[in-house]
């Protein structure tokens, strides 16, 4: 950390001065020789001060972090509130044998505690220790004696060389074989990867429009666009596959007491722990290709990450045979294999109308492009309408929901099908929505909100366009089941406590 | 079911009027610096906006109602999209009373109920008299404490 402080101390002022010197007129460049060393000294000083002012401690009940040079912040996180503990190592970290530990709770948007640059072993020790103390507190609830931390750790982020906790109690649940990894890489769709080829094109050519010849016939323009799109798709899937391989190489999932612990990564190593008790919802997703091969992936959501936080991929089982994924879901959420109810045919009509509007927009766009660049047969874009009925039908057939005894299961999506399992116990609010069109067709959408910080689609779990009566029943049922599970839990807790109280 | 204080319509009408006014100013600016927009068109659009705003406010007031049920706070609202929400008391994190400048002038107050939910985590009941708002806040707080349990997070 001192090294990093020194490096950032060195680079920051120089870079800042360089940028300032570039943009602001009238700064004599000779000043750089005076200001840069001064800035460097301040930077190094600040880095060192930050290092010495940073300390953390594992007490019996809380994880304490004290940091700050000018304004000091000290924070105590009760173990019972910890959602995720992640250990991240980028390439630079691995070269220096250090890691970043982040501790997430449900409160606040940011990561609640980040330990930058702790020794690798120490990072693993902190992760294991937090899990151990959390488990000890939970097992010990109601008792006055608290477990003592295994070491009197008042460690400022430094070089500790203790070996990590023994991993005797760990049970290996899942390991991603190389063959499976390749299959996963080939079938996973990462829409984010689509940007990179465009970016690359922009960087390499400077001006992509220069690739299009000045005089061009209409036919060759269409051909050129087709080739361009195919090349783009290929580049995207190649980048996406490389990203998947790098990210999920050597994936292992273990169960350690009441926690799931995973490790993954080729160049950057990630490891995270997910307490079983904190799981908000479970999502099984499979792309069209993965369905053909009979594979699926499973991810769990906790309340730990802030909205839009992409750092923690909570893919618990990135890729496994479908039956195996369902067995995992059974194990985690206790969900039985759901019997899906399909949506009323009226719902399909809505999608038909919606996609027809989309097709109209496509034709309109083609018409406008034709006006600008003089394309003649723009009306060929009307083939988009041919795709409308099958698209609406596929959308409709791939939707479903299941109102179970302990869970609500929502399924949707054709290209990438997602099946979300929500335990009634995790429900925060239940909402029925009916838009103007839905009211006319006798449809309603049921929105079941949980404290999950991140669902895969980035939206609140919703059963879209179900029959009004079914929506009302499901709404009432969700509320009733929530109260029932609350009562069950309260009773179980009392039963659990009675021997100690007697 | 409890309905809101009728004065809330004035607040919503005022909000609609402000929006219509802003639209009018934007149109006037377009007229000034971009293309010609006839004054009658601007006046017509602003008038239409006002009428729609009033109709919307009246309808929203007719639709809006809430109730403290045995297990949850239940609300119905919405003109274009009709929304029914149940907020179980166990899930209430904290309860605020708030009022803005127009609300204060009208002698109104809002109660905002927060849950740990991911989105739409706050539920607002506008158009209450300050006494009723404080009363509701206290009741909700008591109900939340009474049903004290795991918060599901």
UniProtKB/TrEMBL annotation, chain B:
Domain YdbS-like PH: 61-140
Family matches, as InterPro entries: YdbS-like_PH
Membrane-spanning ranges: 38-58
Domain of life: Archaea
Annotated keywords: Membrane, Transmembrane, Transmembrane helix
Protein name from the UniProt record: PH domain-containing protein
Species name: Natronorubrum halalkaliphilum
Taxonomic lineage: Archaea, Methanobacteriati, Methanobacteriota, Stenosarchaea group, Halobacteria
